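Box 4.2: Ligand-aware structure prediction
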Amino acid sequence: MIAVLEKSSTLHWLGRQLFNRDDPAAFFDPLLERVNPMWVKQYTPARVAAIYNETSDTKTFVVAPAGRWKGFEAGQHVNISVDIDGVRRNRTFSLSSSPLQWQTDGTVTLTIKRLPGGLVTNWMHDHLEPGAVVGLGDAFGDFRIPNPEEPALYIAGGSGITPVLSQLETMAASDYRSPVTLLYYVRTQADIIAAEKLRALAARWPAFTLKIFTTDESEPQLLCEDHLADVPGLPARRCYLCGPKGLMDLANDLLYRRGISEDRVHSTFFSAPAATLDTDSLGGAVHFERSNLDVSSEGDAVLLEIAEAAKLSPRYGCRMGICHQCSCRKTSGTVVNRLTGKASGPGDESIQLCVSVPRGPVSIDI
Ligand code: FES
C-alpha cells in the first residue's frame, strides 16, 4: 500500500478514475496522514524541528515545511492549522525568521506568545513537540522592507516584534546601508523577545540602532515625543509599526504631529484578539442553509472553524477579520465578533465567518 501511495501519478490516475476530483490527492489525505503526515496535500505540512523559550510566555517554533511550500517575503504572515481534540483550528501568525534561513536550511520560525484564554496559542505551548506536524498556509501581507533602500524607523511592542525580526535579519544579511532604528517597547527586561538576536544584530550591523524601553518597571518608559526626537533624520525615514493597538495609535499620533505623512507610515496587524469573551454565553445550533446541514458549537469557535469541522469549504483568506474574503449572509441569529466583542443584530446581515462566534442558534447562507 505504501509503495502505491508514494507515486503521485498513481494518485492522480486513481483520483480521476474513481472520484472525478480536481485535486484527487486530497482524497487520500486522511489515509496519508496516518501513514506519514508529511504527505498530506490539503495544506502544506510542516514538521516541528525545534522549540525554544524566548520569555516565560513566548516560544519560538522552528518548522520545516514540505518542499511544495511557496516561501515568503520578510514581514509576511501565515495561517497555521492544528488539530485540537479532533477539530482543526487555524490561526494567523507572523514569520519571525528571514527568507534566507528557509532558502538555506528549509526551516522557518514562528514566535508565538500565549494569549490569555487563547485556545490555539496555549495548546501550541503545552502540547506541540519536536516531530509533530502542523499545517502551514501560503504567506500573505504587504508589510515589506523599503525598496529601494531608504532610512527606516521601526516601532514595535511586545510580540509585535516578530515580523520586524524577519525584516531586520533580512536587511542585515543584504548589507542594508541606510540608517535603521528600532524602538522596542516591552513590559519588563524579562519580556524582551529575541533579546540575544537583537543585540547580536546591533553589534554586527553598523546601520542599525536598537533601543529597548520597559513600560512596567520602576520608571515606565512609554513612547513619547522625546523618543522620536532622538531619531536622527526622522522626516526622511519610512516608518513601520507593529504592536498592541494602544502603542500603534500613539505612534501614529506622534508621527503625524511631527509632520510624517500617512503614506510613509506602514502598520501591520497584531495577531492578538482584542476582546475577552464570556465563552459560557457562546455557542449554539448552527444551520448551514444551502448545505442543509445542522451542527452544534461550543465556546469561542468561529463559524469558519465550525463550517470546516462539518466538512464544508467556505472561502477565506487571512482568517483574522482583515480581508473580508469570508464574508457571507447570516439570515437569522446573533453572532459575537471575536476581535471586538460586539454582538450582531438578530436578523439578516453580512458577517465575516472567520471572526463570528454564534451566540445561540444561527442560520448561515452557505
Ligand atoms: S478570512 Fe479574511 S476576513 Fe475572514
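In the box above, the bound molecule is FE2/S2 (inorganic) cluster. The CA atoms of residues 62 and 109 lie 4 Å apart.
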